[in-house]
């Protein structure tokens, strides 16, 4: 009998919990591919450079930069295995948002497919989670996709150690941002708000699963979003992308602060692995347009109002730029900075 993943879908509906982790794991493994070797020497250098980045960024970040318990350099399949459940916040809101009347197990299976397809695709596209803009929740080790790092070294033509330092510093900064106490909770709130707009179409879902399945999703991840949201979802998706875009911009700013003396021309290493057209997985990676807007916002705030104004955004989510303010620094300053001055 042909071992087709989606021929087992209805059997998988009976998996317990809000997310069908069995389906998520099979989906992610399908996209990640078979195990592949990782250069042990490169892994050792990346571990060394993560420790260096932790020290340098702690000197410039306005929040703690904790030392990770370990640094693991993995192939795509290994990265999936270590990170998958760290993206549970993406699926929990989706499962909860299915609403009454949905067939039993549909919410958990959609959540499993969403998270599995996302993480599996990411494992083939990013060097670490920072390139997608999404955090792996928890206090586990730094996770790096060693095969993707090797490709980045080869494709960039840059010195290997410099590329490794760029990867290490960006992942350390990314982890530190999403360990500010309110950030992951805010991300979860945005996911729940988005999920409340979901109107799943079982017929479209069945058609997708029976006509190519994950291969089609890998080529065109927007198919999942077509099943899950419409015009009502747009403002919530914009809020999601605005927050991730700002976090991406801020990450790049603090990496430049900490590493510019060690890595001149650091901008040449930055590359967006998100979809430049803004299509994604609904609750998924930050699109290139939002990331670029976040970078421009952070640089403009620091240039016009000073580093303290930019760093002060991390006091709480009420100081974050709205989707409109991400491209309107003056509007953000009028709401956040002028109101603050008026109370002094």
What does this structure look like?
- With 344 residues, this protein is mainly alpha-helical.
- Helices cover 57% and strands 2% of the residues.
- The chain has a two-stranded parallel ribbon.
- The N and C termini lie far apart (73 Å).
- About 3% of the residues have low confidence.
Quick structural overview:
The protein is mostly helical.
Largest sheet: spatial strand order = 1-2
Amount of beta strand:
under 5%
Total number of beta strands: 2
Number of helices: 16
The secondary-structure element order is HHHEHHHEHHHHHHHHHH
How much helicity do the residues have? 55-70%
Using only CA atoms, what is the Rg?
A: 20 Å
Contiguous uncertain segments of 5+ residues: 272-281
Oligomer: single chain
Structural class: mainly alpha
Largest sheet: 2 strands, parallel
Q: How is this fold's topology laid out?
A:
Elements: H1 9-12, H2 21-32, H3 40-58, E1 71-74, H4 76-83, H5 88-96, H6 106-123, E2 142-145, H7 146-156, H8 160-177, H9 183-195, H10 202-209, H11 213-219, H12 222-228, H13 234-259, H14 288-305, H15 307-311, H16 329-342
Parallel strand pairs: 1-2
Helix pairs in contact: 2-4, 2-6, 3-8, 3-13, 5-6, 5-9, 7-8, 8-13, 9-13, 13-14
